[in-house]
Amino acid sequence: MNIEPRLLKRAGLAALLLAGSASACFAQEKITLRLADSLPAGHVIHELVAKPFMELVTKATNGQVTFQHFPSEQLGKAKDMAQLTALGVMDLAYIVPSYSSDKFPLTAVGELPGIFETECQGSLAFYKISHNGGVLETKEFGPNQLRPLVTIALPAYQIQLATGRVIKSAKDLEGLKIRTTGGAMDLMMRSIGGIPVRMAAPEIYESLTRGTLDGMIFSYQSSVSYEFGKLLKSGTEGQNFGTAIFTYSMGESKFKSLPENVRKALVEAGEQTTREGCKRFENGELAATDKIKSQGMKVIEFGPDDKKVFDAAFKAVAEDWVKDLDKRGKPGTETFKAFTDALAAGH
Fold it and tell me: Fewer beta carbons within 10 Å, N or C terminal of the chain?
């Protein structure tokens, strides 16, 4: 794994913290794990996923393990979380692999538009291929020295616009600057004529207010958490323009340094949180959508012809994504097949 020098400096500062907790490797000694994220305090992802996960681990270890939470990019930028976690700057973190799509190109398989129907279907299929010798474990997380514990597919993303342009058909989206997370979402946006602008979620609000961004592809629950509702003029409903996969992951070296009972608790809590957390998101997206609409956002109504445009675009995106990875020597075909097989099998 290639590490940027600026991140190595940050890791050096973290060494003092790590040295003080070295004795935590003994089984019955109290352990405090530092969990970092890029989310504002009270964000729905922390409330529905991270908090229940931490509670499960603490309960399973009878209080042996507790957590210290560092929100709002206190320990590092969103795009750097994967590398910083592998380096040990934090013990585990909220990581969106597509923020580092150069290092995690294969994980975008879970973000392809229209590839699954429900959050739980996508979350559990992704969990399967990122654990127990699955292709994402062996080809991406392992080589990047990360151990994914929780994997969640966010609700199907909708196009949400802060521009006053009236959208009556798919063609009206052409030329709009839309925030994406990179990877497959960039391909999808280009395929329908939009201009993808890759950026992390904490940067969206300012870009919308300045007019340098027309909108974003996002879930409504996340829009509520970031208070985008008051800026939005229009948005889609019931579409599937892709999603974002996020994980709560631990550096592999840190994971291996922990006592066996703690490792077991982390793994079991991670799988349980994946199964339960995706369901919480499914239930919460409807309420979030209603809240955003109550703040003045108008629903964009697309017709049957537009649906054909989107379906054709989504199919082309998946095919291009696979071909591009195969051409670069990456297992695109293998990853796509593994994920679609896992979706078909159900879990």
Answer: N
